[in-house]
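Case study 2.
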Amino acid sequence: MKFEEFREVMRSVVGPDVEDTWVESFFSEVDVSCTGQVKWQQLCSYLLLEYTERERASIPRAALLDSQPQIRHCAHNKREATVRVVAVSHPPPLRYMSVSKGGQITVWNSSLHILRTLGLAGDPTEEVASTRRFRGWTSDAVYMGNVHRVAVATDCRDLHFVNVSTAGVFEDVHLFGFRSVPTALCYWHDVQCPERPSLLLLGDERGGVHLLWFLNPSKGLFKSPSKAESGPQRIFLPDLGEHSNMVSHRHIPNVHQEPITRVMFEPGANVIMTSSESDTSSVVFMSVTLKREPYIWTFKQGAKCFDYNASLQLMVTGGCDRAVRLWTRFVVSRPVATLLGHRAAVLDVSIYQPVGQIFSYSRDAELRVWDISSHRCLKIVHLQFPCLQPGRIPEHGNFPFLLLSPPLTEHSHLVVGCKDYLALLHLADARRGGGGWLTDEGKEPNIQSGPAVSCALYSSALRQVATGHVDSSVSLWDVETGRRRLQILNAHGEDELTCMTLDSSRRRLITGARGGTIKVWNLLNGLNLHKLEPVTDSEVTGLTCLHDNQVLAVGGSRRVAQYDIAAAKDLYVRADMSWKSSGVHKSDILAVCQCFALGVVATASHDGEVIIWRLETQGAALHLQRPTQRGALPPVDALLFLQHRSGNRKLRNRGVLVSTQAGCLCFWSVTGQTHTYGQFYAPEQPGERVLSLSSDQPQNTILVSGDTTGRLQIWDIRHYALDIQHEPDSERPPLLQSLKAHERALVSVEVLQVTDRSFVLTASADGSAALWTKDGDHVGFFGQEVIWNITEPASYRRKTQRKRTEDTEETTEGDETALSEVKSQMHGPANRKNAVL
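Prediction:
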């Protein structure tokens, strides 16, 4: 039916007062083919999508804002696992302290940069050569906020108290002589009245609980020594009576038949909560006075971990049977729900009350997010720790989680430990809804917690920027004004977008997701044209489209898959696995890049291997870099071919390929005998990574890099990597610009030409995308309230704080205001087109 007939149908269904403008808009949305006619089948399909999306909108999104976290190496752990990470709030600013299995304490700032280290003191009777090295294993640690100490338990049956009241840290008390090894710690003090007695709980390997009441915490933990001692004050537990005016000790034996794995304290009910891997006493809630009968939960293989929330009256347990169980406070006979899905033992669980969700973490480095009300798994994240090796289970400490939320920290986040690595994940502070509506344009966006951008690119044919987000949405922006033209919600259902590329016409968008799906979109109307056959259900990390519209996809499958979308007429396009890639990469492929002039494709993997493939033979031609026998190299985060050099006969034998790993930019030649043409470390801070690269491809005069601190750098490479470098590290090329572009990591940078001028596109994990001039002037954030005119520099947001070599790192107040605006606009309802597939 044509528009006139459609309008009459709407009037008969909705009512005679329906506005023509609404009917016209509705007709345009249903008529996706732009034929001027709508079939009943089209209308029914549209309404079905509408209903499906409304149902999806009721499902909350996971609180995790990161597609992949910030990962740091605890180099001072000496390859031992991190047992516990604690947050130290005094003196400000917030610091972290990680305690290794071997007794090494590392102090970090809030960005996980190492400030200082400390080793636990050993037994003075074993003093050798004027040193007392600690020779045991640590079992747990806890921060004692009102006395500014960190207590560390060890298998030497003792406690080490580390003073953190100043910027420096030192051990000042050593309490030893416990009859069994303390295995779990918990500390409580009255926040409103810090001078009141505080309680330190210790669960031990024999299933008993120790209670240490500190009676005068404002005056100290123990009685001061009568004479000065070298090193920490040593106190023998049986002699604790000498400190009776400062501390009292009580032991409750045989609470469990197995070692205690967790201990908590609920001050409101005066209840001690403990867990063990015992079938007969998995979790026990008992009164401190022991005057009431304890609550005892029993289930197979017991609890390796648990968490309890008093306001929700909810307990969550996890253990070796791989199940996450939800229990109410007073019902011990059966759980409220049993959440299945983990494929390895659950090491830690945590209740995140602000959004009503649960985090669970298993031994195979899999993090899951669950919704408490619906018991639905909202998200699965396979944390890519560098220590992970195929077929091997990584070593963990007993307490991998540290969950922080305001007021202790400005924004909520989760720290996860795996062997000698730490991962920092940012969390939403409020509950976020699910998908959007197809027709409801009035829904207010969530300003505070916009989903992170995972990838971005520029279409020169349409003069539009496309941004992909971790919530599976795609937005298209007019590069000349910064306004949004189109939005696709739920592009891959609940899977995060991980990568995207354009076809040869630059009018079709190809997107890949964490669940292995690949789709092709019409950028003019947001219509899904094709679904490409997944090779596996593992993550798609890279896409590239050859000149004849042959799409190459790489990722967790460790293979190269090819798809022909040139003449595809069906929605479903099958994968062509003719590339000789099976077994070539031994680890997940993280990046792919093509060079038409040389007829090659480059791929790079998580173990640092870089391989060059010939398009003619579809086989590997050259291994530029291989993992060494001593272990894997750092992961390669990005690849970039310098197309101008590759097409120039005089320059094609020089450094034409750039790779980035662990922050180092490496220039490679893919021809000749020598392939190394220079490398340098780009970020300004140590331990950072460069996640994205770009260049002005017609000339290759500049190289643009974006790192994990949000800093954008523009390098002059006109004369760089043109000669063979014999030294492992060469001098850096001239740095033209260096500026703090975003609050968090830059996931995409791209040099683009608009109206004969060069600009730089940046996209960040902070949820924003921005445009900059090559000279470092800030054009603006896409989605900001005030639009710009790209031909009028007077309309640019010029208040960016630029940094060449000496400027400060902070952004200006104008940029912070624009950033808050963009978090509203990036996911607002304007000009929205939705696809639910």
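The longest helix spans residues 40-57.
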